Amino acid sequence: MMFNKLTLSICIIILMLSTAYAKDMSQHHKKMELSCKDCHASGQKVIPTKEACLTCHGPLDELRDAAKQPESELFRDTNPHYSLHYGDGLECSACHSEHKPAKIYCNTCHHNFEYPDFPTNK
C-alpha cells in the first residue's frame, strides 16, 4: 500500500509541474486565446517547428524585411531572420520561446548585437 501512495504522489507532482510550465504563455498569445495545440499540433511537449510559427507569423520574407537592421560600423547585415552564417536555416526557437525568456542567439558568440524591438515575454 505504501508503494502505491508513493507512486501516486510522484505522478501527481510530475503532472502539477508539467501543467504549471505549460501555463507560462505570453500575454499576446493569451489574448488571442490560443491553446497548446495551436503551436504543438502533435499534442506532444516538443519545440514547435519554424513552419508552425510561420503559420501565424509568416511568411518568412516579410519577417526578414520587417526585422532588417541599419548597418553599423561593426556589422553590415544584422538581420535576425537571415543570418550570414545560417541563412534562414535557424529555427525560430533559437531566439524565441513561449515558455521561457527570449534570447538573441547571435550573442552566443558575438556578445554585442542589439535589437531594440526584440520581443520579450511580457
From TrEMBL:
<dbReference type="GO" id="GO:0042597">
    <property type="term" value="C:periplasmic space"/>
</dbReference>
<keyword id="KW-0249">Electron transport</keyword>
<dbReference type="GO" id="GO:0046872">
    <property type="term" value="F:metal ion binding"/>
</dbReference>
<feature type="signal peptide">
    <location>
        <begin position="1"/>
        <end position="22"/>
    </location>
</feature>
<keyword id="KW-0813">Transport</keyword>
<dbReference type="InterPro" id="IPR012286">
    <property type="entry name" value="Tetrahaem_cytochrome"/>
</dbReference>
<keyword id="KW-0408">Iron</keyword>
<dbReference type="InterPro" id="IPR036280">
    <property type="entry name" value="Multihaem_cyt_sf"/>
</dbReference>
<feature type="domain" description="Tetrahaem cytochrome">
    <location>
        <begin position="28"/>
        <end position="111"/>
    </location>
</feature>
<keyword id="KW-0732">Signal</keyword>
<protein>
    <submittedName>
        <fullName>Tetraheme cytochrome c</fullName>
    </submittedName>
</protein>
<dbReference type="Pfam" id="PF14537">
    <property type="entry name" value="Cytochrom_c3_2"/>
</dbReference>
<keyword id="KW-0349">Heme</keyword>
<keyword id="KW-0574">Periplasm</keyword>
<keyword id="KW-0479">Metal-binding</keyword>
